[in-house]
Structures are given as C-alpha cells and as structure tokens.
C-alpha cells in the first residue's frame, strides 16, 4: 500500500506559499548540515513558498517506504502531531494530518490528496494537494484551506538520492509574521534533516553502508 503520508505533513504546517517560481526567484535562506533552504515571494500572498534540497545516502525505495509508513513519517515530519489514512486507491491516497505548531499559532489540520509519479530515471515525485472539504471540520482546529507541493527524489548514484521538497499554501486564520517567516525555513530544514538521519540509520542497520 502506497501511503505517501510524510509529505503531507510537512506541507500541512507550511504556512508558506510556494508559487511556480522560476529558479531565479529562489533566494537561499539557510545552508546547514547538508540541507539548503530557498524561499520565494508569492504574488498575492502574505506567505512565502519554500524549496528544501539535500542529498541522502539511501535509495529511492527506502525513502519511499519512510514516506508511506504514516507513523514513521509523522515522527520525522516537522510539526506533525498525528496522521491517519482516510482512503487508498490506485490513483492516490487521502490523508488527515493534525499539526502541532509553536505558540501562539492555533492548532491546524489538513486533508491531503497525495499521488505518486515514477520517473524514467528510477526516481519518484509525490504530488500534494489540499482537499479541505473531504471530511467535516474538526472542533478546535483551523482547517488549512489551500496547499500544494511536491517531494521529488532523483537517484544520484548507488544508495544516493537527491531529495527536493517544495511547498506553497495558505494556512487559514491568522499567523504572526515572525512565526510565518520562521516556519517556512524550519519546516523544510527540519523535515529534510530528520529524513536524512532516519534513512541513513536505516541503511546502516540493513548493512548497506
């Protein structure tokens, strides 16, 4: 069963708004621990979009599994409190995500439709799209109304994969500007950093390195 849940989590929190910006529009915001985070202004939105890029010493299959296991993916996805599968089909999966955001942001939840595309080079792209009306509103939660993004995994050698995580969205309600600016950097950075740790530990445990 393909449950690419982890991706959803990250976007869920991402108060950012990632536009289909050209490469020239991305500005480097953080470069640390092998993870680079870029931000881009989104016309008509108060929130920036983000792009996170890193190299992981693991193959695409390992990374895909870590995304499809909802319990594991919630553990490494930034600000994920809970994820559960709502529906699975050959076309896509629908996942409910509950977030834990830093104070003073109000708790938010998100329903995501996640579809998977396999690329000719042996890579994978996860397409994420909010489906806010898929389930009724939840008490004491602000439903994220709009979010879209991708996780892209490109093989770069034996057990080496370039992972790119891009997101754009509107968080709903109000979010302090300082928190929004912090989140668009922390969400991709921490998600990719922790994914590297988990994936590379998995490789060592399996005797791959």
Describe the SSE topology.
Blueprint: H1 5-13, E1 27-32, E2 35-40, E3 49-56, H2 60-68, H3 70-76, E4 80-88, E5 93-99, E6 108-118, E7 124-130, E8 142-143, E9 146-157, E10 160-170, H4 177-205
Parallel strand pairs: 6-8
Antiparallel strand pairs: 1-2, 2-3, 3-10, 4-5, 5-6, 6-7, 7-9, 9-10
Helix pairs in contact: 1-3
Written description of the protein model:
Residues 18-204 form the START domain. Residues 1-19 form the signal peptide. Keywords: Signal. GO terms for molecular function: lipid binding. The protein has 209 residues and is an alpha+beta fold. The chain has one domain (5-204): START domain (Alpha-D-Glucose-1,6-Bisphosphate, Chain A, domain 4). 26% of the residues lie in helices and 38% in strands. The chain contains four helices and ten strands. The chain has helices at 5-13, 60-68, 70-76, 177-205; strands at 27-32, 35-40, 49-56, 80-88, 93-99, 108-118, 124-130, 142-143, 146-157, 160-170. Strands 1, 2, 3, 4, 5, 6, 7, 8, 9 and 10 form a ten-stranded mixed sheet that branches. A hairpin with a 5-residue loop joins strand 6 (108-118) and strand 7. Helix 1 packs parallel to helix 3.
């Amino acid at each position: 069963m393909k449950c690419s849940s982890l991706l959803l989590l990250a976007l869920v929190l991402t108060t950012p708004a990632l536009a289909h910006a050209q490469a020239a529009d991305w500005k480097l915001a953080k470069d640390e621990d092998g993870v680079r985070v870029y931000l881009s202004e989104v016309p008509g939105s108060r929130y920036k979009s983000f792009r996170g890029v890193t190299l992981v010493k693991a193959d695409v299959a390992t990374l895909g599994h870590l995304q499809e296991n909802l319990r594991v993916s919630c553990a490494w996805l930034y600000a994920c409190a809970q994820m559960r599968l709502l529906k699975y089909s050959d076309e896509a999966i629908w996942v409910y995500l509950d977030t834990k955001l830093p104070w003073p942001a109000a708790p938010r939840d998100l329903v995501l439709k996640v579809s998977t595309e396999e690329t000719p080079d042996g890579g994978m792209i996860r397409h994420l799209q909010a489906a806010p009306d898929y389930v009724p509103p939840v008490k004491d939660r602000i439903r994220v109304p709009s979010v879209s993004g991708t996780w892209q995994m490109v093989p770069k050698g034996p057990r080496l994969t370039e992972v790119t995580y891009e997101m754009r969205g509107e968080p709903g309600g109000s979010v302090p500007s300082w928190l929004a600016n912090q989140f668009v950097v922390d969400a991709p950075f921490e998600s990719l950093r922790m994914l590297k740790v988990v994936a590379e530990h998995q490789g060592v445990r399996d005797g791959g390195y």
